[in-house]
């Protein structure tokens, strides 16, 4: 087959991820109207594909700070947009927790931390190592701070919303601690078979827990076909398409449900 011979570019992986993601979100939005549960299965490999793509992107970008900033702004915008949508449109049957940008931004923090620690050991300077450790711990610290505040008596709703929008807490990430797969993939970015083994181990863990997330193992099919080529650029498209399709599907489902 042509695909087996030529392989898949980064662009191809993104297209596959986006296609599966849309099917998954159709299931999410239309569950109250009887959308079949098996549609959700299509979404299980999506995060793994995007995690892999983010490792490739972060490894090759010329400006890591700009790469991280785009994801952070996307995270904030997505949090504000989903909150506003749920305030404006009554559709309580679906809770919008979608924010893959948070997962990917936290992933870049972990990758940046690894780079800093490596730099510190290479130059034998302590400061980069300390910086790297602190950056790596920050998503966990944010989660603890948020948990402590939300556990107080009568937490202020606006403060909670601000924290949810601005803080990269790993425990409020869409895929939670599964985001730790990103730094693991980054550590072995030049060893695809080890990356495949790590993905398989995580999938086995989910299978043991009885979670359908074990189907993430099917992400290995396109990932192992990755040919190292960038292909066409899809950067700006994804930043626009992701929030747009969530909003459109949510509004469409709300209108249909109430009529």
Automatic annotation (TrEMBL):
Domain of life: Bacteria
Record bears the keyword Membrane: yes
Segments passing through the bilayer: 12-30, 42-59, 71-89, 126-150, 162-186, 198-225, 237-257
InterPro entries: TraX
UniProt entry tagged with the keyword Transmembrane helix: yes
Keyword set, alphabetical order: Membrane, Transmembrane, Transmembrane helix
Protein name: Trax protein
């Amino acid at each position: 087959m042509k695909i087996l011979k030529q392989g898949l570019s980064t662009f191809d992986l993104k297209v596959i991820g986006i296609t599966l993601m849309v099917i998954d979100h159709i299931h999410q939005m239309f569950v109250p109207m009887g959308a079949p549960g098996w549609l959700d299965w299509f979404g299980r490999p999506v995060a793994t594909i995007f995690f892999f793509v983010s490792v490739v992107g972060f490894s090759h970008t010329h400006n890591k700070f700009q790469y991280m900033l785009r994801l952070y702004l996307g995270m904030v915008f997505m949090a504000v947009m989903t909150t506003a949508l749920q305030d404006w449109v009554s559709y309580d049957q679906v809770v919008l927790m979608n924010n893959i940008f948070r997962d990917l931004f936290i992933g870049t923090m972990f990758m940046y931390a690894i780079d800093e620690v490596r730099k510190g050991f290479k130059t034998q300077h302590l400061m980069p190592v300390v910086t790297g450790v602190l950056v790596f711990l920050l998503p966990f610290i944010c989660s603890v701070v948020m948990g402590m505040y939300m556990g107080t008596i009568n937490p202020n709703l606006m403060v909670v919303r601000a924290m949810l929008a601005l803080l990269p807490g790993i425990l409020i990430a869409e895929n939670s601690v599964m985001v730790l797969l990103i730094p693991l993939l980054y550590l072995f970015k030049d060893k695809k078979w080890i990356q495949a083994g790590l993905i398989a181990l995580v999938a086995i863990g989910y299978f043991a827990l009885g979670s359908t997330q074990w189907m993430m193992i099917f992400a290995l099919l396109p990932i192992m076909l990755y040919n190292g080529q960038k292909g066409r650029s899809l950067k700006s498209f994804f930043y626009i398409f992701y929030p747009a399709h969530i909003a459109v599907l949510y509004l469409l489902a709300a209108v249909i449900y109430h009529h």
